[in-house]
Design brief:
The chain is of the alpha+beta class and 202 residues long. It is 20% helix and 21% strand. It contains 4 helices and 12 strands, in the order ααββββββββββββαα. 35% of the residues are buried. The structure holds calcium ion (2 copies).
Length: 202
């Protein structure tokens, strides 16, 4: 008998999200992010060091008003974007979460990402098209993360065009070619860059 009462109540809740959601807040506002900030490199193939190995991590706990903790939320619907004018380009699946959310609604971005371009403008996690704030209910959505790639021009292959751009940055420092993020473009970066020539999307 109790189930017969609960089911219509549950359906009514699902059909009236406005009654549950706080006015003006996005659906995923109860969510939370803990970010370990810093700079990292990605390559088009995604075969480079993981974010974790580069000292960077994004931990996400996804929640909404109606269901609370969102379990088994598909990783394909959790992705990263940058507001940078120059921007980043991504290989298929190169910017999505590591896994579907677990029983606590948790997932992370710790594995290597796959793409090109560069950005010093920060990154934002999106869930089904909605920007997620770092603290629940109205926190900052922009995470202090910088990213560069040997695919400097962002066409998702590391080739002669990128070598020419890299050469420019040897003369005049640019973050995009500083692959160990030490504030210089020098022999160390040349060695790293050379190892990525020919890299492309899987
Ligand atoms: Ca390229
Ligand atoms: Ca460097």
């Amino acid at each position: 008998m109790r189930i017969l009462v609960v089911i219509p109540l549950f359906i009514a809740l699902l059909l009236t999200p406005g009654a549950v959601a706080r006015a003006g807040w996005p659906d995923y506002a109860p969510s939370e992010i803990i970010v370990t900030p810093g700079a990292f490199v990605m390559t088009p193939s995604g075969s480079g060091e993981s974010l974790q190995d580069q000292g960077v991590a994004i931990e996400l706990w996804l929640r909404d008003y109606i269901r609370g903790v969102l379990v088994d939320f598909p990783r394909q619907d959790l992705w990263l974007e940058t507001p940078s004018v120059v921007g980043l380009t991504w290989c298929s699946g190169g910017r999505i979460a590591d896994s579907n959310t677990d029983a606590e609604g948790h997932t992370s971005f710790r594995r290597a990402l796959a793409g090109g371009g560069w950005s010093e403008a920060g990154l934002t996690v999106y869930a089904a098209g909605e920007a997620i704030a770092q603290t629940p209910f109205g926190g900052d959505t922009l995470m202090d993360l910088r990213v560069n790639s040997p695919d400097i021009n962002g066409d998702l292959v590391v080739d002669l065009s990128d070598i020419a751009l890299f050469g420019n940055d040897l003369v005049s420092y640019h973050f995009r070619a500083d692959y160990d993020h030490d504030g210089q473009v020098n022999l160390t970066d040349i060695a790293l860059f050379a190892g990525w020539i020919g890299d492309r999307c899987p």
